Amino acid sequence: MTLPIEENELSEEFIEEVLLCSRYNELDELEEMLKNFDFTKNFLQLKSKSNNSTPLHFAAANGNNSILNFFLKHLSINHLKIAGDNLETSDYGNTPLHFASLNGNLESLKILLQFGFDPKVKNNLGKTCSTLAEQQGHHDCVNLILKHWDDEDEDEKNLDIRNEEELEKQRNLLV
């Protein structure tokens, strides 16, 4: 499938295909579809029409770490802050961390936390990702989140990735 952009707007069909690939761990197809994709201009258009979830939400929810790694390698520091903060969440205020926690995807949680996603963000019901994990009995996820939470410097608001140089170091760890 070629990149169907008309005046910098992605087609609904293309967006849906990217989201499906993210959900079902179709990395080869996703890489082919996005080989000429301008992440800076177009990433924020990749949202589900029904609930505003991004490919990061779908990958985290389903434990598709190769998809998470793919997107994290291509996103800028600003995109990561938007995707991880409450600015760019699903319709219910859930971040990719909420989705990973709810489903007990420990490795996805580790990846997202390493890239600076904030575990203190509350969804529209006032629940953090650790609350969701605890409610589902995912104690390993709760322990990881709380360990990361305790290690944070309050003044720095959980931004493990503060600049492009640190982001590049994290990306190199994915290889």
TrEMBL record:
Renumbered ranges of ANK repeats: 51-74, 92-124
Keywords recorded for this protein, A-Z: ANK repeat, Repeat
Pfam families on file: Ank_2
Source organism superkingdom: Eukaryota
SMART domains linked to this entry: ANK
Tagged with keyword Glycosyltransferase: no
PANTHER family assigned: ANKYRIN-2 ISOFORM X1 (PTHR24178:SF41), MOLTING PROTEIN MLT-4 (PTHR24178)
Protein's name in the database: Ankyrin repeat protein
Organism in which the protein naturally occurs: Clydaea vesicula
